[in-house]
Specification:
The protein has 534 residues and is an alpha/beta fold. 45% of the residues lie in helices and 13% in strands.
């Protein structure tokens, strides 16, 4: 039985509660588009997810990733370019990221950034309320009716339109279902639901403002997954009656398989493409995940010691700039997760690291980069302005010195300096438990130890632990074998030290152990975590 009083198209069922104003987003038109996209594309989505699993098995059996023979002609044809930069996407020297709750929408839009990644993915959680209220808050922002006063009496008001950044929405990845909207009895795709709800509610409003609708595409692993997105855009544009090519998408290259298909991904989306982004934390997660069973050469040292300057990360980011600029696309750098602290020494160190990181990116040819907190916007902007000057970007910096070769540099994990330590193991457990507790409560962007963490941090943490247990790794400092028993012992110690009652962490602990110490590796911790959500 549907719990909704909404007018539902044939075959559509909503099992989530319908709260105040939900009908403004869950309109017959939006639900009809979801049904259309589901019927035309969901079968292909599921096929691609099966192809991912098949590739993981092949790698476990000794195969390696490499550039695709069957798409060599696309890579070797120098004539094609992506669509020209769309309005509001010419200058992206600093992009703010964050979830789409009401307060964050206003703070992000008032941040002074050039663009804002409005996140329905890793900085959010797929709690039913977030799925519907995200696009509603964005629509209210476009209508300029979003102003509000917090319970503490603080007023939040939008700056004038001409001072606001370009909104770029990030839907969920292909792997996540939306269990509250069913079509023909099947769960829908979180990706297609997020896309459709935003496009119908805000697409024309964005066009009227002169920029949009634009998207960030997460977690893709192949150009064939990009092809599904391109088809979704074509269907969506026809459905709402806007010209083909109005939508633009920036793809996150945040999986190791996608790093070998960057050019092909740009090619598939070429009429809708606005570039690629180096999603560094998820990329590290993907490297560990993809080669988790391949022994000592692929053991990644403590998470916090793996910087962007280690060989395999350096190879990936430089290739991304080279690929984008060859094709006339923007190259956007990685996340600076720092958040301001009350401790001045911590702040000074954070700003120094931020400046060094963004200076390297700007020098490498990136056109802009991400920050997770409004206080970091100006520093990032200043660093890029030193390199860009009055130019909106540096797409003319072609980086022809970068040669991909056979791609082996992308797989050179063993040259990474650093060790696996007992402190690193404890830190992974601590951060993962704190993050999962917040995630299960509906918050996807969480400040932990002066960093704004999203799901990628918890994914790296639990994947490292799974890999360490399954490859019988010992800690360098204490010479202890990392075993399931050791992890269980440390989990209990960490929970005892965290604020609140130990029972507050029961669901987080259960989810963590399900994905960190189980015999079978779970592809994404958000899948079992979502199953625990109402």
């Amino acid at each position: 039985m549907s719990m909704s009083p909404l007018a539902l198209p044939d075959g559509v069922e909503i099992t989530g509660p319908i709260e105040d104003r939900y009908e403004e987003i869950l309109t017959p038109q939006a639900l009809e588009l979801i049904a259309k996209l589901h019927r035309e594309l969901n079968g292909r989505r599921l096929e691609r997810l099966e192809a991912r699993a098949k590739r993981v098995k092949e790698i476990a059996d000794g195969a390696d990733l490499g550039f695709l023979e069957e798409t060599k002609s696309v890579r070797e044809d120098d004539s094609w370019q992506v669509a020209p930069l769309a309005p509001g996407l010419e200058d992206r020297r600093v992009e703010m990221t964050g979830p789409t709750d009401r307060k964050m929408v206003i703070n992000a839009l008032n941040s002074g950034a050039k663009a804002w990644l409005a996140d329905q993915e890793d900085a959010n959680t797929p709690l039913w309320g977030n799925v519907v209220l995200g696009p509603l808050n964005l629509r209210d922002a476009l209508d300029r009716t979003i102003d509000f006063t917090s319970p503490e009496g603080k007023a939040y008001t939008l700056k004038p339109d001409e001072e606001l950044p370009t909104i770029i929405v990030r839907p969920r990845g292909w792997h996540l279902p939306e269990k509250h909207i069913k079509v023909d009895g099947e769960e829908t795709s979180g990706s297609l639901v997020d896309f459709a709800l935003y496009l119908v509610a805000c697409g024309q409003k964005q066009i009227d403002k002169g920029r949009g609708p634009y998207f960030y595409l997460a977690k893709m692993e192949s150009h064939l997954e990009a092809r599904i997105w391109n088809d979704a855009f074509k269907i969506g544009q026809d459905f709402v009656g806007i010209p083909q090519g109005t939508i633009r998408a920036t793809c996150l290259i945040e999986t190791l398989p996608a790093a070998f298909e960057m050019e092909e991904i740009l090619y598939e989306l070429r009429d809708h493409s606005s570039g690629l982004n180096a999603g560094r934390w998820d990329y590290l997660f993907s490297v560990i995940k993809t080669y988790r069973t391949r022994g000592a050469d692929y053991i990644v040292p403590d998470r916090n010691t793996v910087t962007m300057t280690v060989p395999f990360m350096r190879a990936y980011t430089e290739l991304l700039v080279r690929t984008c600029h060859k094709r006339g696309a923007s190259a956007i750098g990685g996340m600076a997760a720092f958040i301001p602290s009350k401790d001045e020494a911590v702040n000074t160190a954070a700003y120094e690291k931020l400046t060094a990181d963004k200076t390297r990116e700007a020098g490498d040819g990136f056109d802009g980069s991400w920050v997770a907190h409004p206080a970091m916007v100006e520093t990032c902007k200043e660093v890029f302005t030193k390199v860009l000057g009055d130019n909106p970007n540096q797409i003319d910096k072609k980086r022809e010195d970068v040669q991909a070769g056979d791609g082996s540099q992308l797989l050179d994990v063993k040259s990474t300096p650093g060790e696996v330590t007992a402190a690193g193991l404890r830190s992974n457990i601590d951060v993962a438990l704190q993050y999962l507790k917040s995630w299960l409560e509906g918050r996807g962007a969480v400040g932990i130890h002066n960093l704004m963490e999203d799901a990628a941090t918890a994914e790296i943490s639990r994947s490292q632990i799974w890999q360490q247990i399954n490859n019988q790794v010992k800690t360098a400092d204490t010479d202890e074998l990392i075993s399931k028993d050791l992890v269980l012992k440390i989990v209990d110690e960490v929970v005892a030290e965290l604020p609140g009652d130990a029972s507050d962490y029961d669901a987080a602990k259960a989810t963590f152990l399900e994905v960190a110490v189980a015999d079978e590796y779970a592809d994404f911790l958000t899948l079992p975590a979502y199953a625990r959500m109402p």
